[in-house]
Each structure stands twice: as C-alpha cells, then as structure tokens.
Amino acid sequence: MKALVMEAVGQPMEVKEMPNPALRPDGAIVRVEGSGICRSDWHLWQGDWTWIGFSQRLPMVLGHEFAGVVEEVGKEVTKLKPGDRVVVPLAQACGVCEDCRAGHSNLCPKAMSGGGYARYARLNRADINAVPLPESVGFAEAASMGCRYVTAFHGIMDQGQVKADESVVVYGCGGVGLSAIQIASALGARVIAVDLDDRKLELAKKVGASDVVNGKKTDPVKAVIDLTHGGANVSVDALGIATTCRNAVMSLAKRGRHVQIGLTTQGEKGEVALPVDQIVFKEIRFTGSLAMQSYRYPAMLDMVERGRLAPRNLITETIPLEKAFDVIQKMSNFENVGISVINQF
C-alpha cells in the first residue's frame, strides 16, 4: 500500500510502498477514505513532547484523523463487520485500565492512534473503539472531526461547560480553534476569535465568531476586556505558545474558566509562565483538555446530522496523499488556513 512515511525527525517525509498493517484478533483493518492533517503530526515530526517522556519508533506512518470502511475484522470482534463505515477515534482505549473504567478513556495510556496517512490503517480493540459513521456524513467531513474537532467538542462541552449566555474567547484560529469557535457558537455563546492572520479571522467569522481581533494590530487582552465589558467567561488557548496561553488567562472575567487545548513546542518545552496572583484573586479555573472518549462521539455526530454543527465548513482543501507533507511543512510558519483532508490514496 502507499503510505507517507516519517523516517527521521525534521527530515522530509516521502510516499512509499509499505506492508499493509497486520490484523490483530481484537482489531480491524480500515480502508482509509479520508484523513485529516493535524498539527499534532507536525509536533511529532518536530520531535516534540520528549520533555514529558514521549518517544516514537521510526520509521512510522503518522495520521490520527481518519475515517473509512472496515475491510477486515479479527476473530474476537463481535460488533463490526466488513463494509461498515467508521470514524476512528484519536483515543483508542484499552477498556480495562483505571482511566477507562472511570469513564476517562481519553486519558488511557494506550489510547493514541496513528497510521492514517496510508490506504489501510488499523483500528485497535475494535469493539470498544469503533464509532459508526452515519450515511449522511461524508468521509472527508468525518476525517476533519478525527482529532481537532472532537478535542474542541470535549473542551467546549465537557471541560469548559460553555453555556448559551456566556462569552468565549479563542486564541488561535487553526483547526482546533476554528472547531471550538463553531461549537461554542452553536451552543449560543458569543465568541471572540484572536489570531495574527486576517485570512484565518475571516474564516472564523464565517464559522461563528461574533467578533475578531488581530493580535498584531491591537492589544488582544484589552480588546477582549473592552468587548465583554470586563472579561470573557471562558477562554481557550488553541495554539499552545507562551503568549497565547497567558493572554487567554488574562482575558478572563472573575471566576472565568480557561481551557488549555494547545500543546507546547520546542520553544516552551512544556513550561509556560502564568499570572498566578490574577488566577487566585479572580478565582480563575485552569483546565486541560485532551481528545475525547469514544462514547461521546454519537452526541457530536447527532448534532452534525441535525445541522447544528457543520465541520465540512472548516475544510479548505482536499488533496492527494502526495501533497500531505507540503501541508505539514507549512505549519512551521502558521501558513495553513482551515483544515486539509487527504481524500486520494
């Protein structure tokens, strides 16, 4: 099969012929029909997250936002059959660890997936991790939900607990930021989008932002406080650099909630300075948000089917596998606008 292969950190990735993934007794093989290109794969290509003990075996096939058709199932699988349409969750949980049993399968130490930059990919522990894909949702749209959209859904709905009468500020209008904007807007919140690129801010307005702020042209913290007459109820850092994290916290009103979705890079190595006294005196809550449990997917997909959410509006291009590395490279300079999906293998 064709696959985009990472052989070394920071070096060009190439499309090569690779063996098909091996079928496990409790797993399934998925014929990939759509695969989103996520900034998390840029982080992996850069060799990030070693500071939290993460290591990767090379060569490897990246890609953790994919949807497709079940090609083959293992002998232990009872809930799937060949021909089923599925979304493959980012968090492919084990189902038996303490986190999984407590309902937090997104935190399972065995939960991370990959292999979606190829024609065939593996779904692990298929009976607990497969998410049926409704016929009304296309593969490209489903792929765009694989990581960024579900992470934003979990962050806005579960971790941030955004309400209809609240104001939400989102720092960073990449894929996860735009997803958070659309979801918060669908809940009835007033959403303020902050970025340095007017192209991204224009797309943010199209997907639900009430107001946009270009941080290059104005002080974003002051702008948010002025727009909300005292600060936002919820802030989201969808990028993960020191400036956006601090500014997001500083943009909050008293008893505001901050949701940290963006992960740091080599510049921060996991460490960011925060206004601790402000957090104490304003009773600000700071919450992390990672992926989403597979049992939460049906609620999100139901909102998509009913037209409340439209992930397809975040897709700005569909491309062949051969152009995927170009998209990843552009992420180094924040050149990408919207979500790119591979739909030709």
Strand content: 15-25%
Classified in CATH, the superfamily of the largest domain is Medium-chain alcohol dehydrogenases, catalytic domain
Number of helices: 11
* Architecture per CATH nomenclature, i.e. the level-2 architecture of the largest domain: Alpha-Beta Complex
Shape: globular
Spatial separation of the terminal alpha carbons: 9 Å
> What is the number of beta strands?
16
Integer-rounded radius of gyration = 19 Å
CATH fold name of the largest domain = Quinone Oxidoreductase, Chain A, domain 1
Largest sheet: 7 strands, mixed
Assign the structural class, choosing from mainly alpha, mainly beta, alpha/beta, alpha+beta, or little secondary structure: alpha/beta
- The overall number of domains is 2
Spans where pLDDT lies below 50 across 5 or more residues: none
DSSP helix fraction: 25-40%
Q: What is the name of the CATH class of the largest domain?
A: Alpha Beta
Order of helices and strands: EEEHEEEHEHEHEHEHEHEHEHEHEHE
Mean pLDDT: 96
